[in-house]
Design goal:
By secondary structure, this protein is mainly α. The chain contains seven helices and no strands.
């Protein structure tokens, strides 16, 4: 009964004895190794490569858009990052703001200019200025209230600038805000 030895030609590749004997082929030269590892800088099929590149870029952009809309910190722009900005967003989103009715009211005012009665346009313009005054007062109140809340939560002297950020968010209609509201109305942050 013959034994399979490392020099035995009957040793099958993959068995421990065959692997110990050697790899069964010559070591490739450096030139052959480098040739095998070479990749062209410009692909041979440029249209397909361009299509793949655009598809990957679109996928990344879509992921970033969804992440930003959902309020994921890593996808947010610098102006929206940080725990204080999140607190401001949640506080503004939890309350009703007078600024939310401003845009629809402006559309109504524009439509009233098509009514042939001039008094209708005048009264609607007066109503818009009244709402703008109400929005300004509301934004001042929100800024004052948020200053108090942020100072309690984060400490005196550690509060970032937030008033313009809160005002711009309060003036936007709720469905148009980005990042999208993460809290329901009345669900104020702690």
């Amino acid at each position: 009964m013959p034994q399979n030895t490392p020099t035995d030609p009957s040793a099958t590749p993959g068995t421990p004895d065959a692997d110990a004997a050697g790899k069964g082929r010559a070591t490739p030269t450096r030139k052959e190794q480098e040739a095998a590892n070479k990749r062209p800088l410009v692909p041979t099929d440029r249209k397909a490569a361009s299509k793949d590149s655009k598809a990957k870029l679109n996928e990344q952009r879509e992921r970033a858009r969804i992440g930003m809309a959902n309020g994921e910190e890593r996808y947010l722009p610098v102006r929206d990052k940080g725990p204080q900005k999140r607190y401001v967003r949640d506080y503004v989103d939890a309350r009703w703001s007078a600024g939310e009715i401003l845009l629809p009211l402006m559309v109504i005012v524009i439509l009233t200019y098509f009514v042939p009665v001039p008094e209708v346009a005048i009264y609607s313009l007066i109503a818009v200025w009244g709402v703008i005054l109400l929005v300004a007062i509301d934004c001042l109140f929100v800024g004052w209230k948020l200053q108090k809340k942020l100072t309690e939560k984060f400490g005196v002297g550690k509060v970032e600038k937030f008033r313009w950020y809160a005002t711009m968010r309060a003036v936007q209609m709720r469905p148009l805000r980005l990042p999208k509201p993460q809290v329901k109305r009345g669900q104020f942050p702690v």
